[in-house]
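Bit of a strange request maybe. I'm writing a small parser for structure token strings and I need a real example to test against, not something I typed by hand. Could someone generate the tokens for this chain?
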Amino acid sequence: MQTSDTHRHVFRDRSFRLFFTARTVAVAGAAVTGVAMPVLVFDISRSPFLTSLSAAGTVLPYLVFGLVAGAVADRVNRRTVILCAQAIAAIALASIPGAQSLGVLTAWHAVGVSICIGTCFVWFDAAAFGALPALVGRQGIPAANSALWTAGTLIDVAFPAVAGVLVASIGPAYALGADALAYVVAALAMGSIGASFSVTPVASATSKSGIARDIREGLTFLWRSRLLRDLTGVGFVNSLTQGAVTALLVVYASERLGISTSSPMIGALWTAVSVGGVVGAVVLPRLPAQWPVGSITIGSLTVAPVVLFIVATTENAVVAIAALGVYSGCATITILNGIGARQRLTPDHLQGRVNTTARMVAWGGSPVGALVAGAIAGNWDIGAAYLVACAFALVSAVFAWVSALRTDPCPHR
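Reply from user aminoacidic:
Good idea to test on real output. This should exercise your parser:
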């Protein structure tokens, strides 16, 4: 009852309602782009490598700008950063249906837009991370995050199928116009928030050495904790595997399962991945409290290569979709378990820097995995690419078994 009351309390705040609306609309638009963009690139180029590059492009900017964006976002006007990021993303996405209507759209144009919106997300994410506590206060953070996560989860489950229908109906290029519109709506909602996005007045910009020192402190803490260091290491290989798998879903659907890129069924694979992620997120808190963090991660990483081998070798769509769902659940447990451990073991004054640093390292595997798998699929076939993804998952499992995770005494609670 108390949780329900807290949820209602945050929604009484107009600022949070607008923030919630903006984030939810943006997530819905991104879900459409997540299906439409790889379909568009594959339809134009028939190249698995370019298709994987379009997926890698949404993550790669985090590796380039993540550390700096996290440090800068706390030193400048967060509202300005958020609105600029949303405006640039909307313009970039709108250029695709515009180019399509003029008959000048190329695969490289689409890949460039993927990189652009990925870059915008880095800066948006860094500013929004600090804006939420300023809008709802410390006591409202759990309820606010829960509301945002629940909405995002429902969208992740439902919208890949919606996106599949949209892509089949009007084509992937024009479907991307829906995401451009979503960014416009999100920016209008964010711009309507009257409250400050910072708890304290924005300070004047500090020297580069100050930012470098902040970054170095977070890196040092992460490196000196063996448990967190090893969790970050397996997180890197886990994202390496995820990048290889998710970047080529449209190629896998077309070449292995025989699902046409113009079929509404194309969204079923993304839906399976989303549902698996939701199940993993729901299962994790229910695992026995006496199980250590390391054991939970080892268990999920051990299952992953088994189900990925099934994905790589089957031609049955039902079996493939089920196996992808199980894999996604395992990957989600690995990710969330690592995040929870960092939150419990990191001092409050280092939370932002340590978590941003760990997320950068972990996400670093995604574009690498996507590009490697894309090159392999282009030179051989999609089955070989997914067998390599299975090998990545096996390496992650072996590393987990011989790392500090095996002897970690920290219970999951």
